[in-house]
Amino acid sequence: MRTNLDLETVTGSVSVEGVDGELDIESVNGPISLNNVGGSVVAHTVNGKLVATITRATAQQPMAFTSLNGAVDVTLPAALKANLRLRSDQGDVYTDFDLQQIRRDTSNQNPNPHVDVDRGGRRRIEVNNAIYGSINGGGPDFEMRTFNGNVYVRKGK
Predict the structure, then answer these.
(1) How far is CA 119 from CA 116, 122, 127, 144, in A?
(2) How does pLDDT run across 11-54, given as a tens digit for each residue?
């Protein structure tokens, strides 16, 4: 279905499935689940997990997925071209993508993040501040950020 959504809730979860358009989703006390959505997404929850599976991204449109208290878990198309800004203040950052031109926020003293690769090929990136990197040559800016929790950026099919 092609439509634009602007959804907000104070208490409760938000779940969107199979929608393609401009999505602006906000929850104060509850999780957000976006399944097989496309277009341009801005999603934020204060207290809850944010899970999104993106099937298509609008060309040259930035996206943001943020939580204050909860994990941020985003699956992007494997061939997507984007610049990623990844941050977790009280957690770790994981990705299946091969990030190019990785650098930290300029306010950090150590410009080289530590990257571990687990048995499944997923990379854990040790961050003290934001990490910037491009996937598949770069493109629009995508932010994935949480204060308390992990950030997962998964490569879709």
Answers:
(1) 10, 7, 21, 24
(2) 999 999 999 999 999 999 999 999 999 999 999 999 999 999 99
> Minimal CA–CA distance to 88: which of 44, 149, 47?
149
Q: Where are the domains of the chain?
A: 5-155
Q: What are the CA-CA distances from residue 71 to residues 3, 49, 88 (Å)?
A: 27, 5, 9
Q: What does the pLDDT look like over 57-81, one tens digit per residue? A: 998 999 999 999 999 999 999 999 9
Provide the whole-model pTM: 0.84
How do strand 123-126 and strand 72-76 relate by DSSP bridges?
unpaired
* Alpha carbon 48 to its chain's center: 14
